[in-house]
From TrEMBL:
<dbReference type="InterPro" id="IPR013096">
    <property type="entry name" value="Cupin_2"/>
</dbReference>
<dbReference type="Pfam" id="PF07883">
    <property type="entry name" value="Cupin_2"/>
</dbReference>
<feature type="domain" description="Cupin type-2">
    <location>
        <begin position="76"/>
        <end position="134"/>
    </location>
</feature>
<dbReference type="InterPro" id="IPR011051">
    <property type="entry name" value="RmlC_Cupin_sf"/>
</dbReference>
<protein>
    <submittedName>
        <fullName>Cupin</fullName>
    </submittedName>
</protein>
<dbReference type="InterPro" id="IPR014710">
    <property type="entry name" value="RmlC-like_jellyroll"/>
</dbReference>
Length: 323
């Protein structure tokens, strides 16, 4: 298989070209959450707004997105039926979970990665001093069919003009919008339904679902560090595998894979070579590699260099928590 430089460039989403959406989810008007930006990079994601820009619409068995937030900005409590993995590209972030967000929490620094268990309510907050960005991998081509919000999130959003329809679409009453005829508001979860969502302490989540960047860098000194997968540091089968690669762990010779791969640069500049051309990837860039394309990647500059590689598998897209 070969690709022209133009065809490959169409499969690269540059960090500087990311187009944000500030109305992607139901908490877009809620104070404390109304400054967040959402990015849909590969696949349609789970945005509830028609204003969300999708950079690459084809899905490789999973979705890639990102969230950018200024300090003290919150992403409200929600849950998914498939995997949701984040790594911190920039900033310092607090991830918290539980019905009211008080069951447990963990702070992640740049490069750290978390594979949040399915079936629990989760949220996150930028606790750094500057605008921060986290990159996300969502399991499945349809990313689990959307987001399930904690009841208080839906109620708070209504007070600030946003109503979520049972069709999964947002309607802004402050902008004169209303639910279409025949569409009812998204029903709140009942107490019996809420009781099925576990309240996991940090002692059950952090050891099995969080990996620290500098630990992974040490593991990846000579070969790729297997981060998420059947035989990885974080043992799981969410429909994709994740590895961390460094300058010491990338093979010199081109190789191909039968599965879709996505390269997500963490640190440094990387030169991507394939039959037909080469391109340089910078921190925050995302590149979708098609199956059967032989390629090699190497650091283009001295200094720290790392990237996450996500590879599709034939496993179901979740769940990651089977309590």
């Amino acid at each position: 298989m070969t690709l022209s430089p133009e065809e490959m460039e169409a499969r690269i989403v540059r960090y500087g070209d990311l187009k944000p959406c500030r109305s992607a989810f139901i908490d877009a008007h809620t104070p404390g959450s109304n400054q967040k930006e959402n990015f849909t990079i590969v696949g349609g994601g789970v945005s509830e707004s028609s204003d969300q820009h999708v950079h690459i619409s084809d899905t490789p068995g999973f979705n890639i997105g990102a969230a950018g937030q200024p300090p003290k900005c919150l992403n409200s409590l929600h849950t998914h039926s498939t995997a949701e993995v984040f790594f911190v590209l920039s900033g310092r972030w607090r991830f918290f979970w539980g019905r009211y967000g008080d069951a447990g929490q963990v702070v992640l620094e740049e490069g750290d990665i978390i594979n949040i268990p399915t079936g629990i309510f989760r949220g996150f907050e930028n606790i750094g001093t500057d605008y921060g960005m986290i990159m996300a991998v969502l399991g499945g081509d349809d990313a689990g069919g959307g987001v399930v919000w904690a009841p208080q999130v839906i109620e708070n959003a209504k007070e600030h003009g946003l109503v979520l329809g049972e069709n999964g679409k947002l309607y802004d009453t402050k902008a004169g919008q209303s639910l279409p005829e025949g569409v009812q508001p998204m029903p709140l979860l009942t107490e019996s339904e809420l009781a099925r969502y576990p309240e996991l302490p940090a002692s059950e989540v952090v050891p099995h679902y969080v990996a620290r960047y500098w630990d992974l860098m040490a593991l990846a000194s000579n070969s790729p560090a297997k981060v998420i997968g059947e035989n990885a540091l974080l043992r799981d089968k969410p429909g994709f595998e994740v590895e961390l690669l460094t300058r010491g762990s990338v093979p010199a010779q081109p190789a191909s894979c039968d599965q879709h791969e996505v390269l997500m640069v963490m640190r440094g500049h990387w030169k991507l070579n394939w039959e037909g051309g080469s391109r340089v990837l910078a921190p925050g860039d995302t590149c979708a590699i098609p199956p059967q394309l032989a390629y090699a990647i190497e650091p283009a500059m001295s200094g720290e260099a790392s990237l996450y590689r996500v590879r599709s598998t034939d496993d179901p897209a979740g769940p990651t928590w089977r309590g």
